[in-house]
Amino acid sequence: MKGSLPQILIFAFDDWLSNQLREAAAERRWLIHEVRRLDSFRTAIAEVRTRVIVVQLERAEAGEIYAAIVQLLKIQPETPIVIVSDTKVPEVERAEWAARWFDLGARFVMFPPLTRAILEDAVVGLMGNAE
Q1: How far is the C-alpha of 50 from the C-alpha of 41, rounded, in Å?
Q2: Cα torsion 1, 77, 130, 121: sign
């Protein structure tokens, strides 16, 4: 049963993203698969069939995560990706930083402050009518 339910893969350093999406996922019978380490993220994107990937980033780790997402998109090129910055990126650097992720194929790049409603709307919209 687990493999047949639509899944959201979350790579995050804490529970904040999962907590923001848990209610919407439960209402729609979607699973949340959360990982915290880069090696676990690489394994999950290779093995877990997901509908949406949500990645929490700090700029220091962005290079390794970028490489992992490039690999994912070779396997599952249509997988929607949401990038959530974990730190405040100065306003003058946001466009350049976001452009890198949009060029890769991210559908959303979000910066703090971020509300539950904004994150939920983005992910629910990308998940579509998955049942």
Answers
A1: 12
A2: positive
What one-letter code names the amino acid at 10?
Answer: I
Q: Give the global pTM.
A: 0.89
Q: How many residues does the chain have?
A: 131
Q: How many domains does the chain have?
A: 1
CATH of the domain at 112: 3.40.50.2300
Which DSSP string do the residues of 52-94 spell out, in sequence order? EEEEEE-GGGHHHHHHHHHHHHHH-TT--EEEEESSPPPHHHH
- Note the pLDDT tens digit of each residue in 77-126: 888 999 998 777 788 888 988 999 999 999 999 998 889 999 999 999 99
CA angle 23, 79, 81 (to 5 degrees): 60
- Domain that residue 76 falls in: 2-127
Q: For the segment 61-84, what is each residue's pLDDT rounded down to a tens digit?
A: 778 888 888 888 888 888 899 999
